[in-house]
Design brief:
The complex is a heterodimer of chains A (673) and B (73). By secondary structure, chain A is an alpha/beta fold. Chain A has 3 domains: 4-201 and 231-236, Rossmann fold (3-Layer(aba) Sandwich); 260-301 and 326-405, no CATH class; 481-669, no CATH class. Chain A has helices at 4-14, 33-41, 85-94, 116-126, 140-145, 152-159, 174-186, 194-197, 201-205, 216-236, 247-255, 260-301, 306-323, 326-342, 344-358, 366-371, 376-381, 389-398, 408-418, 430-455, 477-511, 526-536, 538-550, 557-566, 572-580, 592-600, 612-624, 629-639, 642-669; strands spanning 18-27, 45-49, 56-64, 67-73, 106-112, 133-138, 163-165, 423-424, 428-429, 466-468. Chain A has a 7-stranded mixed β-sheet with strand order 2-3-4-1-5-6-7, sandwiched between helices. In chain A, strand 5, helix 4 and strand 6 (133-138) form a beta-alpha-beta unit. Chain A is elongated and about 90 Å long. Chain B starts with 10 loop residues before the first strand and ends with a strand. Chain B has a 5-stranded antiparallel β-sheet. Chain B has a single domain, classed as Ferrous iron transport protein A (FeoA) (SH3 type barrels, Roll). The longest helix of chain B has 9 residues, at 21-29. Classes of the chains: A alpha/beta (673), B alpha+beta (73). The interface between A and B is large, with 56 and 43 residues.
Chain lengths: 673, 73
Amino acid sequence: MEPLEAITKKQKNTGTEKSNLVVALAGNPNAGKTTLFNALTGLRQKTANYSGVTVERKEGNWIVENETIKLIDLPGLYSLDATSLDEKIARDVLMGKLPQTKKPDAIIAVVDATNLERNLYLVTQLLEFGIPVVIALTMIDLAEKQNIEINIKVLSNHLKIPVIPIKASQKKGIEELSIETLKSARSTKVPKTVWLNNGNEIDRSNDIHLSLSGNEQANKKIFSRYKFISDVYQKAVSPFDDTKPNFSEKIDKILTHKFFGLLILVCLLLLVFQTIFSWASLPMDLLDSGFGALGNFVGNQMSDGILKDLIVDGIIAGVGGVLIFLPQILLLFLFISILEDTGYMARAAFLLDKMMSKVGLHGKAFLPLMSSFACAIPGIMATRTIENRRDRLATIMIAPFMSCSARLPVYALMIATFFAGQTVFGFISLGAFLMLAMYSLGVLVAVIAAFILKKTILKAPPPPFVMELPPYRLPNVKTVLINMFERAWLFIKRAGTIILAISIILWALMYFPQTSQQTALNNISEKQKASQQLENSYAGKLGRTIEPVIKPLGFDWKIGVAIIASFAAREVVGSTLAIIYRVGEDATPKSPKFINAIKNAKKSDGTTVWTPLTALSLMVFFVLAMQCMSTLAIVRRETNSWGWVFFMFGYMTILAYVASFITYQGGKLLGFS
Amino acid sequence: MNLSNLSIGAVAKVKSISGNNAISKRLMEMGIVPGVLVRVIKTAPFGDPIEVRVRGYNLAIRRNEAESIEIYE
């Protein structure tokens, strides 16, 4: 065996196989960093989290001259002053403070040519880490269109680092970038921070009378960096007219118009939701029947017994019930990706900030809340863009009030069973009206909850709202697709594992203890046997235990079992009711067999269990209650605290109980049944 | 005079940044430092936030932040 040192040396000198080189990719948001990362690594990338925090850690293998370089994609940054979590992590990576990663050998700074001055600010900070920096200058063609002429040689000379113009989507400049980066990464010379070595930055800052409050020294540093940048900029870029409205400003004449802007935003949202629901229904039906067929197939192959019951009724039914939402999640992320990459999302935040700030939320909270209509999990993950912790927490705490796609089957089942074919005001279908009412109730409660939270436990001075309105650009197809599938995979992994566990537990609760053959009379029907099994199971006992509590809401113990089950995930309420009423695989809301089973369910005294009022009460309960283990798991991850998890679960469930109570008892007082 | 008093389309030179640390620092990092030219592009519906152009890009800030940016008249 060769000594370790020799191996390392060999790898370094000959450059074969795996090298130990680490390169960090840094840049402003919207500078084209992700596109470059994808172009350099292809699909040799993986996403994880930095340990203990929720900042995404993206790494990829970049193959240059038969060497594999580890490329770390830092989060999009405007600055490295460690005020936000992203900035702190990026700083730690560059200083080699993180245990999993060694200090980078070089940094590629992605710089947007159309926005050179502000992009160079981050570069001046990167130069202070003593790591060689290579600039990848993106959006050159766009800059030319805007008559921005950059003398790359002059720029490079003044910054004393290589500047490589690239066009990542066409692989232009990639080779040159590879060569320069490799050269820089291998060099042992410690680069000098040119602008600091001028030595006279404090003197320069006295050019203009400064009346800065607070930490003047820090602000002076920012000022002198920009002073340096302005000098370089004036030398490298020929003057051009920046007073005419640019392309994006022209589009914004309509898209952020005081009236039409809001109108278009509303129409766009309606379109997105309509598309998600209509386009997703076909693949969802296919998945649904696919899992049904799989269940049947496995059921036929296996001999009767506990294992078969577990796999068919527990695992396939449970996990399948969640995975059928995948098409909706994929489509939602497709739209979010497109809206974000075109630059529209920032406009939406711009339009809505005033309204959102009235209840104490940030304009950026709009996106997470919108996503939560599909699923609170991606919605809560999307709150990362909100810098202020209290604002972010308030958004997380109200996100689950948005009626997610998992509530939809519950609403649909109740409406199909009790309110189908009826109209209000003569022409609007009662079903559609109720559906809209449930969605509105969620939004209303969310607004009130946000207002109260921001006035009490999350009270804070309004954080600065400083948001770039990036130029409109066509989204990169590859970036959008990679982003979409990455999110979908995270959903499958995170939700899937928890749902699998819950499905098994739930199944076990309903399966055990087995009603023994002696107690079960032999002459009763299969159906009665099954309901007796449920009654004697742990789940049945649990349902009976909570019956006194839920009786004022109009629910009996069987609904109680369904509600307990739904605390794992809302969508299982349908399948649980189907198990309870023994309708087998026909558990879809459209099935007449299922609807009749619900309608005809009788209490022990012979009266019907379900009335329209019961259904309404159940729907209201589902709008407000925190019944989703996966969401709670994500909240634990994102807030890094069990306290917020318990708080969310507690306040939402209490609200749901109270609202349901008012609905049922109030309805009875008003003479409804 | 501060930036929030500036009418749409007008250009002004920044004199100083006041306000608390977090705000002034963020604004300066985004390029709004003394001496830079800022142009007001538009205001959002309901009059807040406002969109400005600075150093060749567009930035949205609330009136609250704009008030902490003193400008030369």
